[in-house]
Specification:
Layout (H helix, E strand, L loop, with lengths): L6 H31 L17 H5 L6 E5 L2 E4 H21 L18 H25 L8 H20 L12 H20 L7 H12 L6 H25 L17
Antiparallel strand pairs: 1-2
Helix pairs in contact: 3-4, 4-6, 4-8, 6-8, 7-8
């Protein structure tokens, strides 16, 4: 049977405990006094997420969520979040120029009645719908068979698989060894725009008079002779008309997303 600790040890322990408790109480009293002196936490203290928060946190949407639809095709959270990553820095830059602090509460501080969160949501959904409109158009033109997010991911995996196989065989393809989804989305969109604009050109007025008028708009004073610039003028005109048609088809930028990112029907 163990003997009880010496009384002096117990007394010392108790005293040290009382000293610690007394110090804690005193500290709490000081903190409480400071809070009372200053009237407690201010209602103006910033709340919410800082500018460094991820787009998923800001938009509170999951990759598998259906955010809206375009011509019956779902526009998923994954597509909106990918688009949000592409415009996030621009939205932050815009609001910092307005003087919005980057710390907590950044995304909910309004300027001119609009918060950074609302602007990010609006831009991201608009860009995601625009890309869906592009892919639907490409399917109609026979350039794609699957316009879904799963289809996009399969395209990406196939592209990277081909690049890996080519590199392993000593015949690497031009460009990067593999794509991340953000870079591939930009590359794929540019490829589809190029192909669709060429198809769309078949129905445009590309007469000599139209090209010369476009040349006058583009060249200004001191431009190259029309004969040397003809091909560039034609290409610029076709691309402008195609982009206008794509934007009209998508309803972009006039896409309205009310409230949060709840399921809504765009078309």
């Amino acid at each position: 049977m163990r003997s009880a600790p010496p009384r002096t040890s117990r007394t010392a322990f108790r005293r040290s405990g009382l000293v610690w408790i007394g110090a804690a109480v005193a500290t709490a009293a000081v903190v409480l006094g400071v809070a009372l002196f200053h009237g407690g936490p201010s209602a103006e203290e910033p709340q919410g997420l800082p500018a460094s928060a991820s787009v998923a946190e800001v938009l509170a949407v999951g990759p598998g969520d259906t955010v809206t639809t375009f011509e019956g095709e779902p526009v998923t959270g994954a597509e909106v979040l990918r688009a949000a990553e592409s415009v996030r820095a621009e939205v932050i830059s815009t609001f910092t120029r307005y003087g919005t602090p980057l710390g907590p509460g950044f995304w909910e501080r309004p300027h001119g009645g609009v918060t950074p969160r609302h602007r990010l949501r609006e831009r991201a959904v608009g860009a995601a719908v625009l890309d869906k409109a592009r892919r639907v158009w490409a399917r109609e033109a026979g350039l794609l068979t699957d316009v879904s997010e799963q289809g996009f991911q399969r395209e990406l995996a196939q592209e990277n698989g081909e690049r890996a196989a080519a590199a392993a065989g000593g015949r690497p393809l031009p460009g990067v060894p593999s794509y991340d989804e953000h870079t591939y989305a930009r590359v794929r969109a540019a490829e589809l725009d190029s192909a669709l604009s060429k198809i769309y050109a078949g129905g445009l007025d590309l007469s000599e008079a139209r090209l010369r008028e476009q040349y006058r708009i583009m060249a200004g004073q001191g431009g190259p002779p029309f004969e040397k610039a003809r091909d560039n003028v034609r290409q610029a005109l076709v691309l402008r008309e195609y982009r206008t048609a794509l934007g009209t088809r998508a309803g972009y930028p006039g896409i309205h997303v009310h409230g949060g990112l709840d399921t809504d029907t765009h078309r």
